[in-house]
Structures are given as structure tokens and as C-alpha cells.
Specification:
- The complex is a heterodimer of chains A (156) and B (546).
- Chain A has 156 residues and is α+β, with helices and mostly antiparallel strands.
- Chain A has two domains: 1-37, no CATH class; 39-147, Immunoglobulin-like, CATH 2.60.40.2470.
- Chain A is built from five helices and eight strands.
- Chain A has helices at 3-12, 14-23, 31-36, 39-43, 47-54; strands at 60-61, 65-68, 79-85, 90-97, 104-109, 117-122, 128-136, 139-147.
- The longest helix of chain A is centred in the N-terminal third of the chain and has 10 residues, at 3-12.
- Chain A starts with a helix and ends in a 9-residue tail after the last strand.
- Chain B is of the alpha/beta class and 546 residues long.
- Chain B has two domains: 33-42 and 50-64 and 120-374, Purple Acid Phosphatase, chain A, domain 2; 384-542, 5'-Nucleotidase, C-terminal domain (5'-nucleotidase,  domain 2), CATH 3.90.780.
- In chain B, 31% of the residues lie in helices and 22% in strands.
- Chain B has 17 helices and 23 strands.
- Chain B has a six-stranded mixed beta sheet with strand order 4-3-2-1-13-14. Chain B has a six-stranded mixed beta sheet with strand order 6-7-9-10-12-11, with helices on one face.
- In chain B, helix 1 (3-15) crosses helix 2 and helix 8 (162-171) packs antiparallel against helix 13.
- Chain B is globular and about 70 Å long.
- Chain B starts with a helix and ends in a 14-residue tail after the last strand.
- Classes of the chains: A alpha+beta (156), B alpha/beta (546).
- The interface between A and B is large, with 22 and 52 residues.
């Protein structure tokens, strides 16, 4: 266990650390968000609607996209989802939760030279297919994984 | 009754000419051989790597009766193969003769009579004798504990698992993984692992990580040298602990199957020189069989959780060769013995035997007996309180119901003035024969958990259906990775039809209360649910019966 790293984070304190990074010009709050915000895609109420707004109406299935996520969510409010793309020229990675009121949960721009691997947490109200949509060289690719959200129940 | 008297009794019974008794006499004759239990426990040594495995003993320190299920449905590819075989089908599949002691250990058949003939099973003092005997003939042998060890009895609950920790140290457990252990809370688990167990027992789990950075909480595996062979034991804790049991016990840890991390742990152990790799798993047998087909380089998965007493391993082919998958039952009833012949750096051959622990055939180990007496002494009066005498056979297992569950549900409805009651489909809990007194100890055997809340709430038909459908999917999902093990939530007062092969949302049909259909949303305002063990003060309180 990397106790040092945890200590640094604790000592720094989340907000304070963020302020330092922002001051150093590494993160520009607000600006970064505003530039790439695709309102129509994030507010789309169905998968086809959101995909269309992203310009990704008919993505091709790809086995070069790896999704790392639990089979059953431990807590539907914070479900960790990781996506890694092995497709050359990956420009962006988006994550969709099919049964959420607004399916597009996150979209990451991948600047050239960056490893196309992202992890975030999504909120899920019910069992749903979760999709990763990758844009590479102007084309769109897709992969999916079902994540179950359950009330729980055990007999073991 | 001592062992000699038991053997004499068997001989007398044999004269009566009953098939069961005749078989018992065979057992008695074997019992006259050398060593404890004579021929019955004579297992010739094979190969150079020896692993003994018990799992899901649920803190049963003393011998018990435990009736195996008469229903264990397998969905999709899982139907008709182990572990979804019970009774005569199981005996046929594994070539076990009816009316033998093995048949009694592995099935529910003729349970009451067979139980009276062969006596109780398990008990740590008897298990200790067997372990010592096997160790004597198998130098270097390791004893593996698959978990669900620190929970399931009054004394384990009252001592926060300490009685089992002491007993396991005395038994000589070498490596362990867990599930119900975590319901003592993360802090307690770590205190035992880093304190009591230090330098004695390795607690391994490759699939428990910190929720913040994903760092390992426990070592993923250990490598032990044995007779010139490096043997890796990889731990796999119950993947759905924070879902099936309250999340707050392990709030800072993530679980899950973590197949990729498993592959990585196996590869890493091999790279470090392990010539035999074994997973000590609490996945449940269907999950283990699926995992065995997808992960390469595991020689055997010694499994638990689903409490399946499976006489022989299931051999699963995969890209790396083959993996044996076993499951060693529950309640201290069995000890699995796996021998590997490792040659030229890999497993060349194997032998496996799941030995039933008959308390009448294995004399109690004196030291263990003394320890158990000491551990129980402060609680004997409490444990011995007589509550009732049972007229019928009381047992737990079965996909949908058990007589002990029904007794609990009837009690809930009566005491809580509720029309319907729910109770979890636990697979642990001992069996009582007709005429036996029901002591406080036996009640604790069915109910001793660290979150024993009983709640009463008003539920609509719709809510009840949602709960039943949800639990049902955890049991009958066609993909084992989406199953959590255990059995269907037990219901009292409510009748329904279940179609396990249907899709989630369509499995529960024809719900009825006192012969009248329950309609969604119509029962508002009535006392419908007495949930045994909900979680008050949390939104999940409605998940009655989990």
C-alpha cells in the first residue's frame, strides 16, 4: 500500500492542492470545461440522440477498447468505469450509461501523445449497458459492458 | 456414546438386515483398521504437493447434523452438472452407492434415519485428529481455510470471532481468505490479520483493494516451498461482500471478481518460480467454473461460498491447459485433500478426495477438545437455554425454503403482527432431528450476525415484487458473474410462483396473500413486511430479508 501518497494527499488537502495546481497554470478552472462542452450531447435523452450530437451516429464495434468496471456495482451512486483504447489515433473517449436520464456521462479529449486511458465514476439508477465510444482519426468505435445495480441479498 | 459403543451399535443394526444398517456395518468393519477411522480415512500419499482444504465452517466448533439440499437449480449451461446435482442424481454422477456413509454425507436422502445411524459430522476436535493423521503421511502439507469461519455461532458473535481465531491457530491453518469475516468490520479483520495471525496464518485476497487508489489491502498470494516445489496460493475473497452484506463494514474497500488482476497475480507468481498455482476462492462454484475457463495458469481452484459438497473436481479446459474446480461443502462436514505430482516444473497428475468428517469415526483431539471447552465455558449456560423441542426435521438448505426458515418466519409474523415476513436465504445453519430440543445455541446457529435488525414496514405489492425479482436475479442470472450465491429470500404468509428461466422482472408470478392475489400498489397502509435483518437508518431499509 502506498501510504506516502495517501499522506501527501491528506496533508495537501484536496482543495488546497487543487488551488496550487491552478495557480501553477496546470489547471484552469472553468476555461477547460467551457471549451469542449457539447451541451446537446450531454443533454440528449436517449443514446441515439446523444451519439448523434457527438457526430457518432453509427459507431463500429471494436475489440480494441477495454472497459474496466464491476459486473455488479457496489454502490450505484459511484460506479468506477475505466476505458482504455488501443486504436491508433484516438482523439476522444466518451462514456454512456444507456438507462440514465441523460446517457452521456463523460467525454474526454485525448491530446496527441497522451495515453488513451481514462477512469471516472458514473452514477447509475438501475442495471444498464454502459458504452465506451472512441473517436480515432475521425471515425467512431464502440464497446459495451453490462453493469448490474442491485438491492443486494445474500445467503452464502 | 463413545466410538466403541457406536461401532457395536452398528454391528447390531447390521444384524437387522436394513440396507442402511448393513452399509453402516461395513463402515464399522473399516473402523477396526489402523489409525483413526481405520480404512475409511486411509488415503495413500500421492505426488509431492499436498493441500488440505476446508471452507464455510460457519464457526461450528462442535459436531452437528447438516442436511444437504434437495433442490439446487442450475440455470442455462449450469443445469444438470455439478454443483447442481442433488440426491440420487449426485450419487449416480459420482458413482457413490446409496445407503453408504458417503451417500449420507453428500445428500439429503433418508436424512433422519441416516443421521441417527452415522451420527454427527464435523467438529474441530475431530477435524484436528483427521488433519494430524493426514499431515503425518503427507510431509509439508498445507491447511487452507476458504473463509466464512469467524461467523455462524453464538460464541463467534459474542467473541467477535476470537474463538475461531484461536481454534484455527490450534488446528494449524496456514492460509486463509474471507467473506463473512468482513462483517466484523475492516478494523477487526485487520487487527486479527496483523496481530493474532502474524507469522502464523497468511490472509490472502487479490480482489480487495482500497477504494481511493486501488491499492491491495492484503497480499494477493503467498508462495510456500513444499518438498522442493514452490506452491503459490492466491486468495479470492467473496467478490460481492459490500453488496450482499452491509457496505459500512468495509466502506473503504472495493471487492469484485477482478479477473484481470487474478491473471496478473497468477502470472506474477509463476514468474517468481511457482510451479503449482492454486486459488483459494470464495467466489462460489459457478463463478469459479467460469473464471477457470477464462484465466490461464491456475492448476486448481479450491472453492467455497455455495456450500457444495462435490465429491470430485470439475475439470475445466482453458487457453493455458486445464484447471480443477472443487467445492468443499460447509459446517465443518468435509475436508478436501488435493495431491499434486509436480514434475519438470509443472503439475503432471493429481488425486482429490473430499473426506466427510464423521465425529463417531474420528476420536476427538484432546488439546482441541480442551480449547473448545475453555472457549465455550463463559457461554455454556446461555447456549444451553432450552427453547422448545422440535417435532419435525429442522433444516435450512433448499433453493426456496427450509423448515428452520419457516419457523423463523412464523415467529416473525407472530411477534411483529405482520401479514408477510422475509428472511434471507442463508445456506448456513445446522440441522435438528425430530425430538431434539431447540437450544439457544441452535437459534444462534441460524441467526448470529453482526447486523441482526428486524424491521416492520408497510410495503406495496409492487415493492415486494421488486425485492423478490432482484434477489431472484442474484440467484438465477444466466451469467454466473452476476450471481451472488445463497438461496432465494424466504417468505412467510406470501405465496408465489417462480420461473427461474425467465428474464429478470418476469420470474415472479401469481403473488398471493391468504389465497387472494396481491396487486401492485393496492396494499398501501397494511402491515405487510417483517423483514428480518434490514438496515434501519439507511435507504436500503426496504431491502428486507437480505
Amino acid at each position: 500500500m502506498d501510504r506516502n501518497r495517501r499522506e501527501v494527499m491528506k496533508a495537501g488537502g484536496g482543495a488546497a492542492l487543487f488551488a496550487v495546481l491552478a495557480a501553477a497554470g496546470l489547471i484552469r478552472p472553468g476555461e477547460a470545461l467551457a471549451n469542449g462542452w457539447n451541451k446537446a450531447a450531454f443533454e440528449g435523452k436517449t443514446m441515439p440522440e446523444a451519439l448523434k450530437a457527438l457526430g457518432a451516429a453509427n459507431p463500429a464495434n471494436s475489440t480494441d477498447i477495454t472497459m474496466k468496471a464491476p459486473d455488479i456495482a457496489e454502490n450505484g451512486a459511484v460506479v468506477p468505469v475505466g476505458v482504455e483504447s488501443k486504436i491508433a489515433g484516438t482523439e476522444s473517449i466518451a462514456i454512456f450509461v444507456d438507462k440514465n436520464p441523460s446517457p452521456l456521462a463523460a467525454s474526454f479529449d485525448i491530446p496527441s501523445g497522451t495515453e488513451p486511458s481514462v477512469t471516472t465514476r458514473v452514477k447509475m439508477g438501475q442495471t444498464s449497458d454502459v458504452y465506451a465510444v472512441v473517436k480515432a482519426n475521425g471515425k467512431f468505435f464502440i464497446a459495451k459492458k453490462e453493469i448490474k445495480v442491485t438491492l443486494g441479498g445474500c445467503g452464502g | 456414546m463413545n466410538r466403541r459403543e457406536f461401532l457395536q451399535l452398528l454391528s447390531v443394526a447390521a444384524a437387522g438386515g436394513m440396507p442402511l444398517a448393513a452399509a453402516a456395518a461395513g463402515l464399522a468393519r473399516q473402523g477396526k483398521g489402523a489409525g483413526a477411522g481405520g480404512g475409511f480415512y486411509e488415503l495413500p500419499r500421492f505426488g509431492n504437493v499436498h493441500l488440505m482444504h476446508f471452507t464455510d465452517c460457519h464457526a461450528q466448533l462442535l459436531p452437528v447434523h447438516f442436511r444437504e439440499p434437495n433442490v439446487n437449480l442450475g440455470i442455462a449451461d449450469m443445469g444438470g452438472r455439478p454443483p447442481h446435482l442433488v440426491g440420487e442424481a449426485l450419487l449416480r454422477h459420482f458413482g457413490v452407492r446409496q445407503g453408504t456413509p458417503e451417500a449420507h454425507a453428500f445428500t439429503y436422502l433418508d436424512f433422519e434415519k441416516a443421521a441417527r445411524t452415522y451420527g454427527k459430522v464435523g467438529g474441530f476436535a475431530h477435524l484436528a485428529t483427521l488433519v494430524k493423521q493426514l499431515r503425518a503421511g503427507r510431509p509439508g502439507a498445507l491447511l487452507l481455510d476458504g473463509g466464512d469461519t469467524w461467523q455462524g455461532s453464538g460464541t463467534a458473535l459474542w467473541t467477535k470471532g476470537q474463538d475461531m481465531v484461536e481454534a484455527c491457530k490450534q488446528l494449524g491453518v496456514d492460509v486463509m481468505t474471507g467473506h463473512w469475516e468482513f462483517t466484523l468490520g475492516a478494523e477487526r479483520v485487520q487487527k486479527i490479520v496483523e496481530g493474532d495471525f502474524k507469522g502464523r496464518i497468511d490472509f490472502v485476497a487479490q480482489n480487495v483493494k482500497t477504494a481511493d487508489f486501488g491499492d491491495p489491502v492484503f497480499p494477493p498470494y503467498v508462495i510456500k516451498p513444499m518438498n522442493g516445489v514452490a506452491v503459490a496460493i492466491v486468495g479470492q475473497a467473496f467478490p460481492y461482500t459490500p453488496i450482499a452484506n452491509p457496505r459500512y463494514f468495509v466502506a473503504d474497500w472495493n471487492f469484485g471478481i477482478q479477473e484481470e488482476a487474478m491473471q496478473k497475480a497468477v502470472d506474477e507468481a509463476r514468474a517468481k518460480g511457482a510451479q503449482a498455482v492454486v486459488v483459494l476462492s470464495h467466489n462460489g462454484m459457478d463463478v469459479d467454473i467460469k473464471m477457470a475457463a477464462r484465466v490461464r495458469g491456475i492448476d486448481a481452484i479450491l472453492g467455497g461460498h455455495t456450500h457444495d459438497g462435490v465429491p470430485a473436481p470439475v475439470v475445466v479446459k482453458n487457453a493455458g491447459g486445464q484447471t480443477l474446480v472443487t467445492n468443499a461443502g460447509s459446517n465443518g462436514k468435509f475436508l478436501g485433500v488435493l495431491d499434486f505430482d509436480v514434475r519438470g516444473g509443472k503439475v503432471a497428475d493429481f488425486r482429490y478426495k473430499l473426506l466427510p468428517v464423521f465425529a463417531n469415526l474420528l476420536p476427538a483431539d484432546r488439546d482441541m477438545e480442551a480449547l473448545i471447552r475453555k472457549l465455550r465455558a463463559p457461554y455454556e449456560a446461555k447456549l444451553g437455554e432450552k427453547l422448545a423441542v422440535t417435532e419435525g426435521l429442522l433444516y435450512r438448505r433448499g433453493n426456496f425454503n427450509g423448515t428452520f426458515d419457516q419457523l423463523i418466519l412464523d415467529g416473525l409474523m407472530a411477534m411483529k403482527d405482520a401479514e408477510i415476513a422475509f428472511s434471507p436465504g442463508f445456506r448456513w445453519g445446522t440441522t435438528l432431528l425430530p425430538g431434539q430440543p431447540i437450544l439457544m445455541e441452535h437459534l444462534m446457529d441460524q441467526t448470529a450476525i453482526t447486523y441482526p435488525y428486524t424491521t416492520v414496514s408497510e410495503m406495496t405489492g409492487e415493492t415486494i415484487k421488486t425485492v423478490l425479482e432482484d434477489v431472484c436475479d442474484n440467484l438465477f442470472n444466466p451469467d454466473p458473474y452476476y450471481q451472488q450465491g445463497g438461496d432465494m429470500v424466504r417468505v412467510g404468509g406470501l405465496a408465489y410462483t417462480c420461473d427461474p428461466n425467465a428474464k429478470m422482472g418476469s420470474r415472479i408470478l401469481d403473488m398471493q396473500l391468504k389465497g387472494k392475489p396481491i396487486e401492485a400498489a393496492k396494499n398501501r397502509g397494511r402491515r405487510l413486511g417483517a423483514g428480518f435483518r434490514g438496515k434501519p437508518a439507511s435507504p436500503a431499509a426496504s431491502r428486507s430479508g437480505t
